[in-house]
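Troubleshooting log. The previous structure file for this entry was overwritten by mistake, so regenerating from the original sequence record. Sequence copied from the archived sheet and checked twice against the printout by T.R.
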Amino acid sequence: MNEVFLLGHTAIDWSVFSQACTAELGFDPLPIMAKSIYKKSMPTFVGLMGLDGTMDNWSRDTSWKHVNVTFITIVDDALLKEIVNCGRFNYTIKQGVSGSVVIVTGNLLDWHDFVIEGCAEKVTFSHRQFTNKLYSIFIRNKYEQIFNKYKQTIMTDSTFTLELR
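Regenerated output below.
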């Protein structure tokens, strides 16, 4: 029953970003982005957050906090409790017939940590299955770079764990 769908994430005004960097830093980051496989995308923006003209700034403690990601979820009471108790996210809950519809927003650092912690053997099957779905959504939306230090290990229940390489 636990489902999750990407509702939205931070949108960049590329023109403003380009103009501000050019005016104050003396370079336009957009040509650097053109060389990236992601072009004008959120992962490329986050990579440039060090604003030194390179793509080497995937600093989880600074850059990742600039990106907010919102999901809409349909979850049972047990998973709802785990989401609420982690204390990282802003959420709105509406009780449904067999579970809850929850709109959950957090920054990229918090989502990263939640996914890593949830893709582990020690959590319940439903929690791991849910965070596996979150991981897949991030990968489909070109955020694989935030998980590049981790490898997947398939479990006997067809879910996977994420462990440091």
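Residues 10 and 68 are 5 Å apart (CA to CA). Archived copy saved in two places this time.
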